[in-house]
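Consider the following input, taken from an annotated entry for Energy-coupling factor ABC transporter ATP-binding protein (Arthrobacter halodurans).
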Amino acid sequence: MSRIAFRAAGVSVPGSGAQAEETVLLRPLTLELTEPRVAVIGANGSGKSTLLRLVNGLTRPTTGSVEVDGLDSVARARDVRRKVGFLFTDPLSQLVMPVVAEDVELSLRATVRDGRERRAAALRALGAVGIAHLADRSIYDISGGERQLAALASVLAAGQDILVADEPTTLLDLRNNALLQDTIHGLPQQVLYATHDLEFAARADRALVVDGGVVVFDGPAASAVEHYRSLALAGGGR
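Applying the prediction step yields:
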């Protein structure tokens, strides 16, 4: 597995107005993630997405640093993004082509020059997530779960070693939620994912609980879920 290292990495943004204090989105944290599946749980606004976005440079740390297999996420941002794919909550914010296979082919354009080879590679990528039969369908004529699988295929087609997924099941119904979970857990890539689905979180090898921009628990997923439940009942995370 790859190694994701946070070294006193934190994120804050300047306040507005002359006297305003800066807003801390994520307090400095130091940890290494090497497990195949790592879940991140916490309330909305707790800092989960900020933590995830640090991994591939979508957000830059304002203190400390983040490394992926020894590559600094700022100084070596392009190399890091070759190793880390990012899956967003809403697939329609990620799918840019109108037809499923065309979107996957777009992800392959930089690495597969021949059009016929690119098409074949796109079909293989779609087949790997079980939706090759949707290759020629419009992204607007398939279900939410199928769109998320199409977005996943597009991300994975680029061949990155790590997948970061920000609440990938939030918009899905029960059936498509289960389908996407099973697909993600069957991937060979290391996966770091944020979720509000505590059953999904409990399937991970390790889980982080984030509250108020602080990682307040780091350990086995089942224990993390119980910690989060206790925190929510006490009036902390939700």
